[in-house]
Design brief:
Elements lengths: L15 H23 L4 H7 L5 H8 L1 H4 L2 H16 L8 E4 L5 E8 L2 E8 L8 E4 L3 E8 L4 E6 L4 H5 L11 E2 L3 E2 L5 E5 L3 E6 L5 E8 L7 E5 L5 E5 L3 H15 L6 H7 L5 H14 L1 H14 L3 H11 L13
Antiparallel strand pairs: 1-2, 2-3, 3-11, 4-12, 5-9, 5-11, 6-7, 6-8, 6-10, 12-13
Helix pairs in contact: 1-2, 1-5, 7-9, 8-9, 9-10, 10-11
Length: 326
Amino acid sequence: MTAQPSRHDHYPRADTARRTRLGAAAASLEARWRAEDMQPGGLIAAIEAAADASPDEAIAALAPWLADTGWLTDRLDMALALIAADPFARVPMRVVGGGEAAGGLILAERGPIRLTLQIQPAHFAAPTKALFIPGRSAVRILGDGGARVRFHHVSLTPGEAAGTFIAAAASRCHSDPPRAVAADEVWTLDTAQTAFTLSDAHRDVLLLELAVQPPSPLPVRSYDIASGQLVRAASARRDSSFRQMALTLLRSFGRTDAGPLFAAETRSEDFAARWSAMREFVALDPAAAHPHLASMAARDPHPEVRRAAAATLALYPPAKADPCPA
């Protein structure tokens, strides 16, 4: 079977002069945007000024960047001009997501604050899960696509918000009836307790999202919309998430020499990160993981992590049992 041609097959690898021009054009545009953003009144300057504010205060301080999107139109026009000059030009914006799912461009990011232009393709399948992420967000609909929105809600006790979240005791998710999306409407959400899903679009949906997601002891939670049941909890800390992805990659490569990295993460402050690291460690090297798993089953401060570790420990053959480390 003959491989289908790709546009990458035409990339001017041998044309040094052209590639130099491409790099210079992208670098010039990136430098221009960076200089504009760092000036007083610029986007990054505004974000940095709000860095130490509470999530609600940061959303309020940065709301003008959602209300007046002339700056965004100008930036996209410059990006399109770069591509028009050469289709292999690299626009200096970070891409997130994509494919058949929602994707977009990161327009600015500093610390816990991120501004993203997102597109949800037309005729996307209706979501079956609702995701709750600790923090706040403001979402402006730039193109409604004829979509319908459904808001989902979960309750949190003060103890859960402070870090004592127990999956078995989690409140159920309940959902509002779907309604039509209106262009230019703005949703300001406590994303730890309110999520939204879009469906039934016959055109692409375009939205601008300002999210403030500081490190939180409360995990990211995914709920099944139909039943309202919690289906997954994961670390809400971005640094923990990056380490989890790295450990998954090391495990997939069979890097048993990286065992100390897995062991260290099983002692993370974040209970979801501890258990994720332990699962990967057991899959990578059961013998090396065993003493750490035994310690977790006996001493982990989170009751569900202790139970999960004990249940996993019971799967080990008795002959392979090692003494529990002190």
